[in-house]
Amino acid sequence: MLPLLAALVACGGNPEADAGAIQALVAKEAAAINARDLNQLAEIWSEAPEILLFDVPPPGRFRGWEQVARVFKEFFDRFSDINLTIAEVEVGVEGDLAFASYDWTLTGTMGETAVRDRGQATAIYRREESGWRLVHAHYSPVPAAVALETVEEIPSSPPADEAVEEPENPSSGSPAPS
Fold first, then answer.
1. pTM (2 decimals)?
2. Confidence bin at 167 (pLDDT 50/70/90)
């Protein structure tokens, strides 16, 4: 991970346009999760074998698209309703690497159980020949008591032109698949 972050000091581009592209990818990922669309997620994630997802379900570390896709599919299979919203998005771009950090809120239905959870996420993107691609994501839920306390205070999704959404994690409530 250190070499990846060290590369953030590499080449330049158009930081405003790149930041906008990363914001759009965060929104696209949330929309793909809400739609349970693995094909859309595959367009966001890199195909490189070293991509990495940290999430709550054991073993907690998922490397390569095959493992990441399996985690999302299992997550989608457990939920009958998914609503992931994103807020407080911050983006940084340096050369061919970028990051996004944000808060997420997940509501939905798993089996017959209503799910209400929230947390934070960090994502790292790399500029590849095909464009910006997600190479690392880390989803962290807040403690259950805090999540249940505050989720009622969070308004429903903002209008589509303002909404940015993110991945999910059902068993833990994190936005990434679990």
1. 0.75
2. very low
